[in-house]
Write a structure and sequence with these properties.
The protein has about 120 residues and is α+β, with helices and mostly antiparallel strands. It contains 5 helices and 4 strands, in the order αββαααββα. It comes from Thiothrix caldifontis.
Amino acid sequence: MIHNETMNTAPNTYHLRGRFWIESPQGTFLGQGRVALLECIREHGSISAAARSIEMSYRQAWALVNSMNTHSRTPLVSSATGGKGGGGASLTETGEKAIALYHAVRADFDAFLAKRSESLTL
């Protein structure tokens, strides 16, 4: 029999991990990727620039923004049509609140996982 000393002396190294998202009656409303996109729109002032910064196609980014705006009572992102003068996008007050809500729930979720991990023994 091969004896591995680290098996007997290693502390509990099990940790709970998880992901969550907020759903509307129509489906996924807000999750980690969508929040990252919103934060990049805030930073760059453009859906196109935000998409490039997270290596997402403009088409996918636009579809996600459209989905969030459609599923929300009020839009999360306001945009102006591009062209010679350039377009742009910015977060609405609702968009800012959605990001804050997501991060607050994320903190609670992480705290729950950490607390439950303390008693995880196998």
